Structure formats: C-alpha cells, structure tokens
Amino acid sequence: MTRSDGPDHPPDPEADPAGLYQNAACGLLSTLPDGTITTVNATLLTWVGRGRDDLVGRHSFSDLLTVGGRIHHETHFAPLLRMQGAVGGMALELRTPTGRLPVLVSSTMEYDAQDRPTRIHVAVFEASDRRTYERELLDARRAADVERDRVQRLASTLQRTLLPPQLPRIRGIDAAAYYHPASVDEVGGDFYDLFRLADGRWGLFLGDVCGKGADAAALTSLARYTLRSAAAANPDPVTVLHNLDAVLTQEHDHLHPAFCTVIFGVLTPGSGSASITLAGGGHPAPLLLRSTGSAEFVDLDGGQLVGAVARPIFVRATVDLTPGDTLLLYTDGVIEARIDEARNRYDEAGLLRFASTLAPATAPDAITATAALLAGFGDGLDDDTALLAIGAPGRAPGPAARRPG
C-alpha cells in the first residue's frame, strides 16, 4: 500500500524543486562568466522590484547593486571569485524600490571538463537584522568607550587628590617621589606625603592600604588625614602609628577590612645632613643608599600591620643622612613584580642588588632609576607602586675614597 500525503503528512519539498528554488528564504540566481543573468528566483525579484524578463539576458548581478556595492563587487568580490572559485559571506547592498537592502552574498564558479568557467551561482541573504544588530553593537561599544573614558578620568582625578601635587622644598634636603598606577580604571591604595611640622621638622609617610577602587580611595583618604592630624598633635612616629591603628580599628568590619602597611617618619634637617626617625607598621624595609657606594635595608623588622591586630607592635629606627646619602621608601609593588616566564618575584634581594649598583645617588636620580626599573618589568608589574626618596645633598667621595685598596 502506498501512503498518500494528507493533513498528517505534509508534502515533501523535494517533490517540487522548482517551487523550492523560486520561494527560497534567500535570493538565488545564476549568471554567465561575464555576469549576465541567466536565471533568478522569485525571492530576489521581489526584493529588487524587477521582472524576470527585465533581468534575464539583459543585466548582470552587479546592476542590481548600489553604487558603493557595485564598486566593491567589481574591485573585490569578482576578482576573488575568479582567483578562488568561491567567495562566501561578503557584505553588499541591493537597490530596491524603497532604497537599499543590506545583504550577504556567496558565489561559486562552475567549470567544464577543460576547467573553463561556464556559470556562476549566487546566493543572496538578507542582512537587515544583522546590520541593525551590528549598528547597535557599534553604538554600544562607543557608549562603553565613552563610559570607560569617563571612569578613567574620574579614577585619575581621584588618584591625584590622594597624592600631594608636588613635594615641598626643604632647605638642605633633596626629595622626590613617583607613583605608578597598575590600572587606569581603578584607584590604587598606595600613598605618600611630605609635610611641615610646627617645630621646624618635617613629617613623611609612605603606605599601602588593602584593596582597590572606591573602598581603597576612602581608606587612603582616611589614613592620610589621620597621619597628618596625629603628627600635628604628637609627632612621635610610633605614637602616630598607634593613633592611626585606633582609627582604622573603628572602621573595620568583616565585609570591609580597614588595614594598611605604612612607614611614618620625622625628618630633622641639619647643616648638610639630616636625621630621620622612622616607625614601621608591617611595611617593606626602606633602603639606605650611602655616599660610599653601599646600600642596605633599614631594620624595621617586627612592625605589624596597622588596623589588623589587637595591640599591634610598631618598631622604630633612626637614620642619619650624611652628604650624599639617600633614603628610598617604596611599596610592595616593586618586590612583588614578576620578572620571568616562571612568574618569579623580583623580591628584596633583587632590589638590594639594584640599589647597590645605583649608590651613591641623589633623591631625584634614585627615583628616576627606580621608575625605569619598574617600566622594565612590563606586564610583570601588576600592582600599584609608590616611591619616596629623601637625600642629603653633597658630593659623594670618589671611587678611591669609597673603595680603598
């Protein structure tokens, strides 16, 4: 028994290949190698608003395109088709009775037994929705670029408010600083300052708060304000850190931890020299670059994080700067930089070797050289980094005096 088509068995499309061709969801046509149209389906005729007799044997496919589409077809599409024998998904535009229709065009070349081109088969797919999507996507990207620029300007402006615009001039002292942001989109948590105290001495600090972004900016602002205020009341470095610890402890909760590492110091300028009393709160030890050409870490071991533990311990040290000596403070972005494909860190040993080759150096020269070192890390430097250098200017001894024998 032969089953007949009925309501439960729709007709097989293959039983009507002509209807499938004429009413396909895409435009279909064939041309001679010179482009003259030989066959065209009803779908494409509807799109271009033309009759079959008007096109077949009278026009080429490029005649159906807009001026821009025709130029692109003749200069790109047709040459590629001749070279490759097939071209897929090229964007063009058809001329229609109401304007223009964006389409994607694919073509294949048919050859005879002698490998001579005999016919070109073309499929044309409407791309209005795709073009609209691409336009919306482009608009969204432009809007995102505008928003990113706005965020970057905001982050940059906010970052500048958290750092001194320039360091003060101190008679008999060289001072220089540098800040490297890890991201242009987020505010970092590194900070530094150098400011006058009431008794002719100078306060200085350099630190790093936990986190990034808006929370880090708020914590940085609080830390800077507290350090300055505490120093105005009592500039003893350890006392200043205890005051900061008390303030940060009040701000701390499990969702928004408030702690930092910091070094606070009091600078007393002398006649061609200086003395700096430092207190360390869990921060990397500063470097002392001697006029004799040596370099060493200042011992602040044992200092604990500020705002992180109950009854923290802060340690102090005094550094005497003679002419040609420079004290370099830095945040941990330097020693945590990745320096090779194995992701090894630069670490304190690497920094000490660098400082040993650098000494002696003035404060500006030390900052310039260290900034160049940071730039050499490239993508390996993935954290914000702040540098602050304080030096006693003066001529360093010559090599013979520094390294006798």
Description:
With 405 residues, this protein is an alpha+beta fold. It has 3 domains: 13-126, Beta-Lactamase (2-Layer Sandwich); 137-161; 162-402, PPM-type phosphatase domain (Phosphatase 2c, domain 1). 34% of the residues lie in helices and 27% in strands.
The overall pLDDT, averaged over residues, is 85
Computed over alpha carbons, the radius of gyration is 37 Å
Secondary structure class reads alpha+beta
CATH H-level superfamily title of the largest domain: PPM-type phosphatase domain
Distance between the termini: 116 Å
Please indicate the count of domains. Answer: 3
Largest beta-sheet characterization: 5 strands, antiparallel
The CATH topology of the largest domain comes to: Phosphatase 2c, domain 1
